[in-house]
Amino acid sequence: MSAPDIKQIISRLKELETSLYQKDFLLTWNQSAADLNAVLLTAECLEEMVRANISTRVFQAGLAVSNFRDKSTRTRFSFASASSLLGLTPHDFDESQSQVSHGETVRETANMISFLTEVIGIRDDMFIGEGHEYQQTVADAVEQGYKDGVLGQRPAIVNLQCDRDHPTQAMADLLHLQKTFGSLDALKGKKIAMTWAYSPSYGKPLSVPQGIIALMTRFGMNVVLAHPEGYDLVPEPLEAAARHAKQSKGSFSQVHSMEEAFKDADIVYPKSWAPLSVMKERTRLLRAKESAKLQSLEKEALENNAKFKSWECTEKMMKVTRGGKALYMHCLPADITDVSCKEGEVAATVFDRYRNPTYSEASHKLFVIAAMMMLTRFEKPAQVLADLHKKADRRRA
Amino acid sequence: MSAPDIKQIISRLKELETSLYQKDFLLTWNQSAADLNAVLLTAECLEEMVRANISTRVFQAGLAVSNFRDKSTRTRFSFASASSLLGLTPHDFDESQSQVSHGETVRETANMISFLTEVIGIRDDMFIGEGHEYQQTVADAVEQGYKDGVLGQRPAIVNLQCDRDHPTQAMADLLHLQKTFGSLDALKGKKIAMTWAYSPSYGKPLSVPQGIIALMTRFGMNVVLAHPEGYDLVPEPLEAAARHAKQSKGSFSQVHSMEEAFKDADIVYPKSWAPLSVMKERTRLLRAKESAKLQSLEKEALENNAKFKSWECTEKMMKVTRGGKALYMHCLPADITDVSCKEGEVAATVFDRYRNPTYSEASHKLFVIAAMMMLTRFEKPAQVLADLHKKADRRRA
Amino acid sequence: MSAPDIKQIISRLKELETSLYQKDFLLTWNQSAADLNAVLLTAECLEEMVRANISTRVFQAGLAVSNFRDKSTRTRFSFASASSLLGLTPHDFDESQSQVSHGETVRETANMISFLTEVIGIRDDMFIGEGHEYQQTVADAVEQGYKDGVLGQRPAIVNLQCDRDHPTQAMADLLHLQKTFGSLDALKGKKIAMTWAYSPSYGKPLSVPQGIIALMTRFGMNVVLAHPEGYDLVPEPLEAAARHAKQSKGSFSQVHSMEEAFKDADIVYPKSWAPLSVMKERTRLLRAKESAKLQSLEKEALENNAKFKSWECTEKMMKVTRGGKALYMHCLPADITDVSCKEGEVAATVFDRYRNPTYSEASHKLFVIAAMMMLTRFEKPAQVLADLHKKADRRRA
């Protein structure tokens, strides 16, 4: 696929009627098709401008606040990079000492960190039923602060992973698919297998599979979700996936066999996650600080996982995909058999063959985040990009 | 109050003979009236330039170092925002491993972190008798390093709260009053009640009430300090308050009744703090690492606090203020009864009514810090601001 | 020495055929003479441009990642300052949670943090036989990622101290010598005593003495390494020192007497370090998590150190140097007798006399790091500097 033309991208972006200005990016299924397209186009445009050594500095001052309520390397660096790319000063909010459980305090804190803040990125994926709620509470607080004149500008909340969705990952994955298959149109009718895979670890979030099924069903893909019985996901994205599949004339189905999901698949996404019931119980026990019970829960969950070691993306499993050549995807890091663990999600030879594609897949995230920043913070993002392109200041001397 | 005119602010600033260039901002009572005015005008100017989307980037490189020897959210974000606003790279100095108690080491460390540093902001409010001393030691060290040619520029030390004063808070509060009442002149003769209030917590710093009484007495206000017997403050700001009241033809008095202080007050500032004697004993015990005695001290102090639960800013208490409509102020976070605690400093309905004003009060701090940075680092700050205004580069595209 | 002329520095830099572009700076002994000269010239040029208030912002966006696997104040601030000087956003990588011991993971992590990264600075000096290896692994990973098209640019790895070398320190020291004695040529035939000195601490890295002997022998100096028997260094830099001395017509010798080393020395560098054998055993025990044995090792090592308390840079010792006026050097912080410890590396009066020179010595490090960044990231650094000089944007308004 040849490098897309910057001017062309911008003129396509200009056509879109997006609704992101002065808003947040929390759940892909609450965004319009135009919004999603705008994120893809803006991300691509920024990628091409970086490649062409054109500065995309649109801010001369301002903070981009990150709030990681769970560990992160990839997303943390993507957020810092996106901030740097646009000229914002990244600043991490370590709330270890604040009373975040109290609505009143969230409201106050959200305002206190926002007086010169353009974006607040939040990762909150540990507690089922809480991550999205928290992000929405922060969004409501800064919306109110802006309306009340307390804030001079309205920071956008960007979901860096919650209990329901992981939109910066899913959108980066979508951009990866678009680039791999040539266009969004080319994705129509393609089969993607979002399947559970065995991992010797416990408590992995559900947001990636949820984000993938809810997003890919919008583009006419045939999305198959596969997992052992009991490894259920949160209902909301499942419902969104079913609805989207109908609308887009794609399909959404669920099976309990990795092999069935892989059959003739164009794309496979084998990845471990914890059952919803385990995550709910874990949330309850963490809240109750019942550490003994948490230990038994972990033990049970790992024992249950171990029943499904055959859910591995082996060479044999890859053979059943379309022409044996499905695109392997992963949000990284993958649990690679005999490399990062004894038995894992994927065989080493499979991963090795797709290592570079998965790295490229990850490379889009910073541009997706930067795109979300631009679209939420500028009323006419296409014009802003066009001005940058015309001015053509060098990013590096 | 209509938005002040940027040109007018700058021309007023140009008239002032300030002494802040190549100096520090440690205690308001050691600054001239012109210096204080210059901080207010520069802060206002920066606020207006941000509102007008004019870039205030005056540095293309350089560090703004922060050293928080106590927890901070508001001031931390204000400092980072101020740095970003002027183009400096904020960098936090985590000294957990260095030997700060030794003068020699402070001198060396101060130089080592300053080779490209324009500002060092320090919060050191835990130990009575030490915070200001430490800041002065750092200031002396960089002054010497600059004179000796070791440092190419002389970083300004900005007091982000010490045991004696909290000048960025007090100056932000003053700017809030100026904006609320229309001018500094309008503050003459106004009664402000800086009063202790009950809180179920212990060891709260004394620097806010000290900063308020020492600063507001300079502007012809009638300042009443109220607290239960025994909740004394450090002598130096008390003496400054008395001196200033005399000079400004305002007044300064102390009472032991919240109600008496609130009587006909135009402004009330009800806030908890620990008695000086408790803070001294706490300092001693912390130094001696006597944790058992620290626990009994905390218990006693909390029990003593509990005798004064009636010191709460209730609706009834507000009624005795001028027309029942005094301006409620707080440095935040407030201990709000039935919201953040069972019994606290202020009733929920009172706080709710003044929520937005207190948020706005807090919003000034970043501009006050940025103003201190500009005035200490530029010989002709009015000219620098005039150049920015004329150039009118956009802060955001 | 009068200030060097910026144009002259740039034209000298232009003459050099350096090989640093798209490479790393890991060990001085693997760099050509032209590379070392280029670092010195570029560092000097940046120093002069800062002095002349000329902006050296060559990046409008991009990260400078630091990875401190050991404590650091001086180098940490130097790295952040160098990043700010060139316009990069410093970002610290806290890998406390990642599996760095595994090659596969290092490769992946190195790519994941590099999508918009220009430089990765790494300090890894704790484990003998591992620090340099780790840095090389990261370098290989980003080289591969760049070749594979995963990374849009190839970040340079800058060694901020490893088990073998401390090149940013040694190069800053060399620049200090050049400025003190007038030129690199003037260093020919000068005697420098790199000697062990007593310290009441344990486990100090070997990289400074190793870096000094391997580097200074390249400039025709007479380098004497002195330490008590048993306080051996790593072989590789020792061999490099011997080789360099031969090539440069200087000399390299080893003695077991501080006094002998100091005899007629022009420069003395008395500094404590741990014996190689102790560091190796410590590495082994740390890996094996044998904390009881680690404690005995520390006890034994301290007892052994205590036999050599006479290895102190006293006034008497200084008297035997050339004219009693050798230049005293130290990477700081020094263990100063009666100041930072009861008995240490240097007498207080000696240190006091050389305090400012040692501070100046330290001041060069940020410019050395910035020079390494520029030379590794730009194909024609002399042209980039010439453009900056011609444009002459102000660093501060």
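qc> Chain C has two domains: 6-165+363-391, 173-362.
qc> done
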